[in-house]
Structures are given as structure tokens and as C-alpha cells.
Amino acid sequence: MSKQELLVKIEQKRNELIEIALKNGMTSSLSLKQSQELDLLLLQYQKLFKPGNNMN
Fold first, then answer.
1. Containing domain of residue 41, as a range?
2. Which of 29, 30, 34, 41 could bond 17 through an S-S bridge, CB–CB 3.0 to 4.6 Å?
């Protein structure tokens, strides 16, 4: 997955999280699930594109 593709997925997931949290509350199970999925995408980005990694 390219850097741009991953950034798009992160932005989409972030927007989904905001929408769900506004509708259901920050502590709802749906919000927590979306937050965990966003965390995984961010972790993937950090691992792939951190400074010093040859993939950036």
C-alpha cells in the first residue's frame, strides 16, 4: 500500500470515528471499535513510513 493510500484510509477512518462518536457518544462500543481500527492504521503508517525507513 502506498503512503498516499494509507493516508486516505486514515482520513476516512478518522471521519467515520467522528461521525459515530457524535451520534453515539465517545464511549459507545461502536466508537471504541472505530478508534481501535484507526489506531491500527496509524501504527501501520508509523511502522512503514517513520524517518529512517527506506520505504518513505
1. 3-49
2. 34
Distance, CA of 15 to CA of 52 (rounded, Å): 29
Name the pTM for this structure. Answer: 0.86
Residue 43 lies in a domain: yes
Count of domains observed in the chain? 1
Greatest alpha-carbon pair distance for the chain in Å reads 41
DSSP string of the chain, one letter each residue: --HHHHHHHHHHHHHHHHHHHHHH-TTSHHHHHHHHHHHHHHHHHHHHHSTT-TT-
- Give the other-Cβ count within 10 Å of 40's Cβ: 11
